[in-house]
């Protein structure tokens, strides 16, 4: 089996996670280079601990390196499409963190470049590789609950991000709910027709400065006729809350949170159990490993990757629709947004 040489562009939290997972769990991928604009001594020591010797601040030089086979794009969202286009032009396989871009127009332009390049491209919607969501999807596809009537997705973070992150995140719908929009498509295997959202600043006063919210509910009508409901909040007191409930004709499916253990302690005060895992690094680490394994398999076997650039477009349309609904208080028809950009 061929050993691929890879570059990771962006050595923040998610870039480091991928670097560590690849080094420890992906046998036929070697990280040749780490690229980050803040290439300091701390970064060099961390890279050295993973036996990565090359550190660069210039992604264009690294992408043009003929020894590099794969580029992992883990930089800020506003850099994604520029790096994707440069990597595709240099015939590098691309794994890119979500979303493709904060601009639908740039994402569509990027799609053309990728389509013409004959390279493998996978988007980092890692929750598709979570054991709970895979099990629910398999049950749905097997007909275990008949046709879907209603679906509810709960996604709450343990703590809000800093203001510096909020500034460039694109807002709650593009940054946080984007995962839930993808999960909606993944589980139901159908597209959304309409979206209506309500949002509020209930955690702190930072998000209103950027015309955003930190808490939201999103109601969606699907092409199948089913109804979906997504609930987001940037802060909970009890950890990372990730749940799904699907109501069908003949039954219901639920998945609850993952916990460090399922032990419950009973005493005279009542019962005590673990809180959910604190955040996504703990909760979804195996899914991050499995999504990269699936990507590498698609390269090895010359197959379409399991999460394509096309899969990234509809969540962007939904994010834009939810954002417009939040600002206007109106129900948004997705076909209008799609027509606007196509």
Q: Would you kindly provide a written description of the structure presented here, covering whatever features stand out?
A:
- This protein has helices at 13-25, 41-49, 59-63, 80-89, 104-117, 131-141, 163-169, 172-175, 177-188, 280-283, 285-300, 309-328, 334-341; strands spanning 4-9, 29-35, 54-56, 70-73, 93-97, 121-124, 148-156, 192-200, 215-222, 227-233, 241-248, 252-255, 264-267, 270-273, 332-333.
- The longest helix is centred in the C-terminal third of the chain and has 20 residues, at 309-328.
- Helix content is 39%, strand content 25%.
- The protein folds into 2 domains: 4-119, 3-Layer(aba) Sandwich (Rossmann fold); 128-283 and 315-341, Dihydrodipicolinate Reductase, domain 2 (2-Layer Sandwich), CATH 3.30.360.
- It has a 7-stranded mixed β-sheet with strand order 12-11-7-10-9-8-15. Strands 3-2-1-4-5-6 form a 6-stranded parallel β-sheet, with helices on both faces. Strands 13-14 form a two-stranded antiparallel sheet.
- The termini are far apart.
- With 342 residues, it is of the alpha/beta class.
- Helix 4 runs parallel beside helix 5, helix 5 runs antiparallel to helix 12 and helix 9 packs across helix 12.
- Strand 5 (93-97), helix 5 and strand 6 (121-124) form a beta-alpha-beta unit.
């Amino acid at each position: 089996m061929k050993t691929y040489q890879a570059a990771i562009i962006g050595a923040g939290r998610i870039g480091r996670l991928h670097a560590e997972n690849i080094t420890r769990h992906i046998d036929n991928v070697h990280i040749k280079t780490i690229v980050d604009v803040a290439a300091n001594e701390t970064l060099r020591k961390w890279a050295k601990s993973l036996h990565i010797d090359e550190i660069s601040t210039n992604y264009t030089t690294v992408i043009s390196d003929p020894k590099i086979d794969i580029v992992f794009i883990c930089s800020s969202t506003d850099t994604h499409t520029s790096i994707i286009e440069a990597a595709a032009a240099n015939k590098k396989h691309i794994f890119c963190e979500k979303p493709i871009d904060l601009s639908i127009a740039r994402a569509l332009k990027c799609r053309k470049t990728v389509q013409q390049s004959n390279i493998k491209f996978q988007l980092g919607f890692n929750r598709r590789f979570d054991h709970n969501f895979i099990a629910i999807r398999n049950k749905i596809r097997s007909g275990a609950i008949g046709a879907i009537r209603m679906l509810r997705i709960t996604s709450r973070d343990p703590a809000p991000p800093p203001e510096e992150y909020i500034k460039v995140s694109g807002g709650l719908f593009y940054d946080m709910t984007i995962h839930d929009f993808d999960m909606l498509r993944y589980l139901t295997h159908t597209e959304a027709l309409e979206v209506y959202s309500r949002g509020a600043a209930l955690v702190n006063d930072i998000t209103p400065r950027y015309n955003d919210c930190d808490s939201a509910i999103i109601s969606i009508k699907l092409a199948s006729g089913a109804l979906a409901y997504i609930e987001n909040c940037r802060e909970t007191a009890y950890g990372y809350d990730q749940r799904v409930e699907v109501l069908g004709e003949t039954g219901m499916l639920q998945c609850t949170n993952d916990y460090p253990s399922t032990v419950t302690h009973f005493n005279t005060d009542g019962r005590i159990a673990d809180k959910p895992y604190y955040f996504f690094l703990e909760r979804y680490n195996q899914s991050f490993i499995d999504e990269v394994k699936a990507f590498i398999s698609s390269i090895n076997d010359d197959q379409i990757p399991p999460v394509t650039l096309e899969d990234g477009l509809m969540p962007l349309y939904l994010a834009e629709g939810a954002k417009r609904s939040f600002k206007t208080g109106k129900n948004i028809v997705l076909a209008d947004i799609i027509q606007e950009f196509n």
